[in-house]
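step: validate -> pass
step: tokenize input -> pass
step: predict -> running
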Amino acid sequence: METKAQQMIISQEQLLKHWQGHRGLTRRVIETFPEEQLFNFTIGEMRPFGEMVQELLGIAGPGIKGLVTREWEPLKEAFAVENSKERLLELWDQATVEIDEWFPKLTTDDFQETVLAFGQYENKIYCTLMYFIDNEIHHRGQGYVYLRALGLEPPYFWEH
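step: predict -> pass
step: emit ->
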């Protein structure tokens, strides 16, 4: 019986580096916002970017921990940031540490298992992880629109 070896497109370490590269870019977008605009400026019916960032915080650290442990808390999208950019960045950096701690605990086999993330989103772990990354890119794009509307130059998107 012939068995076919599973091919990998990128390594787990490369995927982590890719994700953290996006997180670093999103951090620079947060830094670019004037603090008063971060929590108040909106266009249309979109939320302020500071609220979007809190959603991302609710997904990143708890999400990677859930992918590893298969234990999920309800999604939390609001944090005690008191409209402080410094506090938001502090929480962002804590989530970065959590990702670096938990991500290596995933095995190659784990990526093909199905999870129900936050009791809402059922998919394979690799798809769920890609959703985490895609969602961040989506909200960062909204942040870019806000920065442009405020007359501010956002960080170059290709520098992640």
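step: describe -> The mean pLDDT is 93.
step: cleanup -> pass
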